[in-house]
Design a protein that fits this description.
By secondary structure, this protein is α+β, with helices and mostly antiparallel strands. The protein is 45% helix and 16% strand. The chain has 16 helices and eleven strands. The chain has helices at 4-27, 77-84, 94-104, 128-141, 146-165, 168-181, 197-200, 203-213, 228-238, 293-301, 315-322, 349-367, 373-392, 394-408, 414-422, 426-438; strands at residues 40-44, 47-52, 58-65, 107-112, 117-124, 219-224, 263-268, 274-280, 327-334, 339-346, 442-447. A six-stranded mixed β-sheet has the order 1-2-6-3-5-4. α2 (77-84) crosses α8, α10 crosses α13 (373-392) and α12 (349-367) crosses α16. It is globular, with a radius of gyration of 25 Å.
């Protein structure tokens, strides 16, 4: 016989589950994004800047220049410029910069992407004036000395080349970009080991590239965790000496409108296997060719679960589960005027071969409308979460915002992403999948070429 107290506990538990379920379903799959993370923008001393006054004791600051590999006029210039950052200025030596930043407890960073060069710093909030001044010195007063080039910068570039040679995933992604866009966005992030660097690269050329990259119209300053009026004050004071025009003998940093080509490249590699199947995608949200359905399509294809102990709902997650040695993931690469949707497959050659055919089958199923409405809702929710998470991520948000200010005068705003993805429907996704199948794919295969398939063998048009 069940006691009255036990029966009461069972009833209460059932009531709590009912209330919890009601809250979940009344909430919907994704609530509107908060406006807390909006950027304020401005102009000081001819320099565009943006800030978010996030609560907290630290600040992240970045100078974002339109000087990635897409715009370099010789191979390796973007690599050389980011590795010269903080090596020394006409006011501070490299040693002095190191000691001062250590005493302030800060962090310095420099990297480049295909479109941008990002010079950054993290520090305690009260130290904003020092680090704004330091970034201004990097932009206007860096010393491009021959001994630092030969002893530190060039060896680091050679190290990056060797690192790339051992990474089949990066090799395949670079190859897919080259197939898709040829020049411009197709330029590799780092020079390959076969690039004749000594023919093109020299400290004087890097200095010339820097003189164009660091002109006021070509970069923006972005901060997270700083008051807008304070950032405006220090940018106005310290960036006044930054050049307004490049030298007359310097080439302009221009790149024509990206054009998609497609094709196939196969590279033999003894250590591991990677295939990248890439298709035309969406530009960034500030670009003219933004299509949010490609973010949803990437989430629907998927390959890796976002929930522990679950294979996930995505179509390629089931493929990965049936091919134990294969790792499958779907990503989007967005740029100012173009983008790629690409599936990466890594692992044993036989499993990669089998899984690659399943990618094409999944695209065909989506284009034919053979996907449940529930899975589409899940994909929309996941795509929205990923986009908002990336925008909320401080480092990614800094680059997106700076690039938007330089290229279009508009900062990245998180709410706009949420609204655009919410508007994606089943027909948009079907159309995106169909276009991927009908367009020439960009297929890069690195590894055991005796086993790994050609694009036509898995049903792709190249």
């Amino acid at each position: 016989m069940i006691s009255r107290s036990a029966l009461g506990r069972t009833t209460q538990a059932a009531y709590r589950r009912q209330c919890c379920a009601h809250r979940i379903y009344s909430r919907g799959l994704a609530s509107p994004a908060s406006g807390t993370f909006q950027y304020e923008t401005g102009d000081a001393a001819g320099v565009k800047f943006a800030s978010r006054d996030l609560a907290g004791p630290t600040t992240t600051l970045a100078l974002v220049a339109k000087a990635g590999t897409r715009y370099q006029f010789m191979p390796g210039l973007a690599d050389g410029l980011d590795k010269f950052a903080f090596k020394g200025t006409h006011k501070r030596s490299s040693l002095r910069i190191t000691r001062e930043v250590e005493l302030l407890g800060g962090e310095l960073s420099a990297y480049h992407s295909r479109e941008n060069l990002v010079i950054g710093a993290k520090f305690l909030r009260d130290d904003l004036p020092y680090f704004v001044e330091l970034l201004a010195e990097v932009a206007a007063k860096t010393k491009y000395t021959a001994h630092e080039w030969n002893e530190e910068v060039l060896p680091n570039i050679h190290l990056a080349q060797k690192k790339l040679l051992a990474n089949t995933k990066e090799m395949a992604i670079n190859s897919a970009h080259s197939l898709a866009f040829h020049r411009g966005l197709g330029t590799a992030l780092h020079p390959t080991s076969s690039t004749a660097l000594t023919k093109y690269l020299h400290d004087e050329y890097v200095a010339l590239y820097g003189s164009v990259a660091y002109t006021k119209s070509n970069f923006a300053v972005v901060a997270n965790g700083a008051k807008h009026e304070e950032l405006s004050k220090w940018v106005n004071e310290f960036f006044a000496d930054a050049p307004s025009q490049p030298p007359s003998n310097a080439p302009t940093l221009q790149s024509p409108q990206s054009k998609y080509y497609g094709g196939e490249e196969r590279i033999a590699h003894a250590t591991s296997n990677t295939m990248v199947l890439a298709f035309p995608g969406s530009s960034s949200i500030n670009g003219k060719y933004y299509k949010p359905e490609f973010a949803v399509l990437a989430a629907l294809l998927g390959g890796q679960s976002s929930i522990k102990w679950s294979p996930g709902f995505s179509m390629l997650a089931k493929t990965a589960a049936s091919h134990p040695s294969a790792q499958v993931s779907t990503s989007t690469a967005t740029y100012s005027d173009a983008g790629l949707l690409y599936v990466t497959l890594r692992g044993g050659a036989k499993d990669v071969r089998s899984a690659s055919a399943e990618v094409v089958k999944s695209l065909k199923s989506i284009s034919a409308g053979e996907v449940s409405k529930e899975d589409i809702k899940k994909a929309v929710a996941l795509a929205k979460f990923r986009a908002l998470e990336e925008g909320q991520n401080i480092e990614a948000g800094l680059e997106l915002t700076g690039a938007g200010l330089v290229q279009g005068g508009k900062a990245f705003q998180i709410d706009e992403v949420a609204k655009s993805i919410d508007a994606v429907g089943e027909e948009h996704i079907k159309k995106a999948a169909k276009s991927a199948l009908e367009t020439k794919a960009s297929v890069s295969t690195v590894g055991d070429l005796f086993v790994l398939p050609y694009a036509e063998e898995i049903g792709l048009h190249v």
